[in-house]
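Reviewer 2 asked us to include a model.

Predict the structure of this chain.
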Amino acid sequence: MIKTSRHFLRLCAAVSLVFASSVLAGIENYNLPANKVAIQGYDPVTYFTLGKAVMGNASFKTQHEGVTYQFSSAETMATFTASPAKYVPTYGGWCATAMAKGEKVEIDPKNFKVTNGRLFLFFNAWYGDAKKTWLKDESGQEAKADANWKKLSGE
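Predicted model (structure tokens):
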């Protein structure tokens, strides 16, 4: 009986380790700072509900698949918690236009587009707005970016 229990415990530990490492392996492809807070702390839900980028508050935060998300209110946090996959940024939060080229490039969280239920984020600086390039051929850019993200992330 004791021998069987030890084997069972070892099996449980091995399964837990494999699961934990697969979750961590997945987040290594995401655009995250050391604190693992996605979208530079912006609320992922307000992009969809308000059509604008709203800074989250550290008092309202939750994790999904090892990534921390912050929210502007308890309501948006509850909305996210009920259906997190609906609100996570596309391509791990990297610039969508750059992903179409197979590159990981930082984003400006205020430069975004929601299309067909997907949140796309873009680079923006004085020398270029990646969203403008994306909009010139949105469906073509999206197909390329989807293929590159699949290769990169395995999703």
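Helices lie at 2-27, 44-49, 74-82, 96-100, 130-136, 138-153. The two ends are 41 Å apart (CA to CA). We have added this to the supplementary material.
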